[in-house]
Amino acid sequence: MVRVKQINGKQKLEDTIQEKILKAKKDKYESKTSVDKSKKLYRKRGNFVLDEIRHYQLVTENLILKKPFQRLVKEILINVQAENARPLYRMSCAAVCILQDMAESYLTDLMNDGVICALHANRITIFPKDFDLVLRLSPNY
Fold it and tell me: Where do the structural domains in the chain lie, given as residue ranges?
């Protein structure tokens, strides 16, 4: 049974036909533009890595998590205390944060110089020998 509009008691069949045509066109367009959620979107190789690089270039927060870094610092302090047999060392939260910032900046500078050494050798992959070369050549490290 076809639904028809009644305006002032008169049926307008042509309005409903036009509405059906518009709805069919709209459904056809939506089916083309919508993506199946079951299908995985295909991305070109390397795009994800480039997106990660762009993201981490904009991020200003620390990349190393705070708790694991604090545990590492505590472990190093315990080892130093065991060697020296001195009283307990304590570190404030601000000191650990500053130490974390400096460690991250050191590592990023070392990585950048390692990438430059790899590119100089016409390679893309970074090898341990690149870091050895960086540590040997620069007095900053």
Answer: 48-137
Q: Is the CB of residue 116 less than 8 Å from the CB of residue 131?
A: no
3-state SS, residue 79: helix
Which one, of 113, 132, 130, 111, lies nearest residue 121 by Cα? Answer: 130
Q: Kindly state the tokens that stand for 25.
A: 């066109």
The three-point CA angle 134-100-74 to 5° equals 110
Q: What is the token pair recorded at 53?
A: 């690089």
pLDDT, tens digit, for every residue of 88-123? 778 889 999 999 999 999 998 999 999 999 999 999
The highest-level CATH class for domain 48-137 is mainly alpha
| Nearest Cα to Cα of residue 90 among 76, 77, 100, 79 | 77
Q: Which of these, 86, 101, 88, 91, lies nearest to 71 by C-alpha position?
A: 91
